[in-house]
Design brief:
Distance between the termini: 18 Å
Number of helices: 17
Shape: globular
Protein name: Amine oxidase domain-containing protein
CATH class of the largest domain: Alpha Beta
CATH topology of the largest domain: FAD/NAD(P)-binding domain
Organism: Aureococcus anophagefferens
CATH superfamily of the largest domain: FAD/NAD(P)-binding domain
CATH architecture of the largest domain: 3-Layer(bba) Sandwich
InterPro entries: CrtISO-like, FAD/NAD-bd_sf
């Protein structure tokens, strides 16, 4: 019935919901691992110990272990009847311009107040308390409406209006506020923040969540974020098995259904269009026909490139408009390391974030924000006994332009110049690792550096991009899950909700809803 191109969280969420509704679904993934940007891969150490398991993408998760949660991915798991086991923890570390020596605290509102007292100015605590008191009432409506029930048609009245009348009315009442860009700078804004440290911190959290500073973020998202600080028993979550555990559960949600399948190493070459309608896909192994729809979980450019020009005038018009108008976030520098366990201090947290050397300039300046994750501290199965695995990355802040000179027709480049340039550009990432685990750099038995070219090759991301840089309140809107080409749909970070794990799960649900009756 439906072919889904790509097995990212958005594509698998869409496929799982369609399969649960009785549709015959086939997911086609070009990579040898499922998961898209959230895939996991294995690598042997230089001394050939057992396998290290490296995560290619997200490492920070929340709102997934509780049964009652506003996180759309949790809703997907509940609806498809599959879920990973969860490990919970509550401590993370940060190295900020005001705290170059670093700090490690449990998450939650009380501990955040302690951070503000230590590093903020005289108005920091009052600013935060005023902001929270203004945003938290808005969050009740936002968090009470599951985004997985959102539709783009009048069925919305049934999926939301009949089931969630209270939150829907609250959202409608506050819509002009929550759908506006978050404004903490204007003197007359109800969300004004005067303290520079708090402003910078909110920019950081917004950037880590969806790739843009706070002023480019919807007020609804900021309300969600602030409310999360006050969640009772607030913890961070981590899937057993790492991101592979996260993805495997979504794959099971598809493949356990009769007539459904998920295939790796199956690259889609083009979408087959007949009579002005998408009717299937062409792979290197042959054609697969879809009686109802083809869904692309590729990024925006690849979603368009899969369709020949000339088959739909309206689709070509949208192609030209969106590819011209939609700005892209930058890419990443990644460092993956396998290190002896003694190289990571026993009291080090599983994650720490490094910002610096100053807050000056844009939040996405190259190397300015680096996230370091040691997931084997949470799940030892990700590394051989006696070892740890490290995944550190510059968070969506590596421009593609310096890498264009190293492009090759095959996508591979093993030249000494390319390797040296990777080492140079990854230095802020190595420095961030050394903040808490300096011994790891010399002790590593495996070190791999990934660049924007790696993103482009393995994740099929145009110019290795993180996703669209569509700011709230701007002239450019996110593309919808529907397209002007009949039978062709899309989901993932290039649509609707944007970047981030909750957002792409939500987009997958909205795409499935567009294909299902109420």
């Amino acid at each position: 019935d439906v072919v889904v191109i790509g097995s990212g969280i958005g594509g698998l969420s869409c496929a799982g919901l369609l399969a649960a509704a009785g549709k015959r679904v086939c997911v086609l993934e070009s990579h040898y691992e499922f998961g898209g940007c959230a895939h996991e891969y294995a690598e042997l150490g230089a001394e050939a110990p057992p396998t290290f398991k490296f995560e290619a993408g997200p490492s920070l998760y929340s709102g997934l272990s509780p049964d009652a949660s506003p996180n759309p991915l949790k809703h997907i798991y509940q609806m498809v009847g599959e879920e990973p086991e969860w490990i919970t923890y509550d401590k993370w570390g940060a190295y900020l311009p005001e705290a170059p020596e670093g700090y490690e605290l449990s998450i939650g509102a009380e501990n955040f107040l302690e951070i503000l007292r230590r590093y903020g100015g005289p108005t920091a605590v009052a600013d935060w308390e005023r902001l929270a008191s203004t945003l938290r009432p808005l969050a009740k409506g936002v968090m009470g409406l599951p985004s997985t029930a959102v539709r783009g048609d009048l069925g919305l009245l049934a999926t939301l209006g009949l089931k969630y009348p209270g939150p829907l009315l609250a959202v409608l009442k506050d819509s002009s506020t929550i759908l506006a860009p978050f404004d903490m700078e204007s003197p007359d804004s109800p969300f004004r923040v005067d303290d520079p440290f708090l402003r910078n911190y909110l920019d950081l959290i917004a950037f880590l969540l969806q790739g843009l500073p706070a002023k480019g973020t919807l007020t609804a998202v900021m309300a969600y974020m602030v409310e999360d600080f006050y969640r009772e028993g607030a913890v961070m979550d981590f899937p057993v098995g790492g991101s592979k555990g996260l993805i495997d559960a979504l794959v099971r949600g598809v493949t356990k259904r009769e007539g459904c399948d998920a295939r790796r190493s199956t690259r889609v070459e083009k979408v087959v269009v007949e009579g002005g309608r998408a009717v299937g896909v062409e792979t290197r192994k042959g054609r697969i026909f879809a009686t109802e729809a083809v869904v692309s979980n590729a990024d925006l450019k690849n979603t368009f490139d899969l369709v020949d020009r000339g088959v739909s005038e309206a689709f070509d018009e949208e192609r030209d408009r969106l590819l011209k108008d939609v700005p892209l976030c930058k890419s990443f520098m990644h460092v993956h390391m396998g290190v002896p366990a003694h190289a990571i201090p026993d009291d080090a947290p599983p994650q720490w974030t490094v910002v610096g050397p100053t807050w000056d300039g844009p939040i996405d300046a190259p190397g300015k924000v680096v996230v370091v994750s040691v997931p084997s501290k949470l799940d030892p199965s990700l590394a051989p006994e006696g070892y740890h695995v490290i995944h550190a990355y510059g968070a969506g802040n590596e421009p593609y332009e310096p890498w264009a000179a190293f492009e090759t027709a095959s996508g591979r480049n093993d030249s000494p110049e390319y390797r040296a340039f990777k080492e140079q550009r990854a230095q802020p990432v190595f420095d961030a690792i050394a903040k808490r685990a300096p011994a790891a750099l010399e002790a590593a038995v495996v070190t791999q550096i990934a660049s924007p070219l790696t993103h482009a090759r393995y994740l099929n991301r145009h110019r290795g991009n993180y996703g669209p840089a569509i700011a709230a309140g701007g002239d450019v809107e996110f593309p919808k899950v529907t397209t002007p080409l009949e039978g062709y749909f899309r989901c993932g970070d290039s649509t609707t909700a944007g970047i981030g794990v909750p957002a792409v799960a939500s987009s997958g649900a909205q795409c499935a809803n567009a294909l299902l009756s109420v």
